[in-house]
Amino acid sequence: MKLTAIGTAGSFPGPNAAASCYLIETEEQSPTRIVLDLGSGALSPLQRAVDTDGLTAVVLSHLHPDHCMDMTGLYVKHCYDPKFFNGNVSDTGSIRTRTNVLAPAGAQERLTRAYYTDPGKSPVAASAHDTDLSHAFDFADLDHGTSHQVGSLQIESFLVDHPVEAYALRITDAKGSVITYSGDSDECDNLVDAARGADLFLCEAAFQEDRDSARGIHLTGKRAGRVAQAADAKSLVLTHIPSWTDCSIVRGEAAREYRGPIELAKPGNSWTV
Q1: Which of 49, 127, 156, 191 is 20 to 30 A from 197 (CA-CA)?
Q2: Is residue 11 part of a domain?
């Protein structure tokens, strides 16, 4: 599997990075391509990395805007690209293949509310149309302990500690290689289970020790390192670090807890496992 960082900023798009988005691709003749999260600003760099019409699935770890809001833009792209919208008269306004979306329950309603705007006083209000995003997306629910087969990849979801329903994702390819993505989480047993023995643990570290005291929201570098060590992960990549945080401090915290290799995720970086 090849993992490419598309958006790595924590909590909102930073000056040099979009919010959370990561691309995983297999190297088969007919590759599986999945996107993990599609946060604010991420659709732009994603289009430079891959043809979004060829995505096998989008997987949303949770429904905070910095992890899902550019799904509304992807909906527009999929529905109104002239190669679909102006195709055969019989299917005008539809797309040929809907993109699979795995997400916490309620994602379709949440994203529909984000996309739809009441026409209000528009002089052409009669031409407005409702949407539930089903023209473009086929939604399926994540839950703790569930497993979904997406192309040649197995995706397991683990409920983690965050103020909304949120999942860490364990992705296994046909050869048994594993990438674990923490999504947003504080330190918890389920996150350790998700990262157990992973070849690459892509882990958020939005908080900083001795500065951010709230618990049940995000990891510090120290706690991310502690989870990686407990899980015996083979490598650790830190991400979701806000622009007001010094990445070197967070990395240093992690290095005092985790004895394996540590990298910082930056847009465009890629890793193969």
Answers
A1: 49
A2: yes
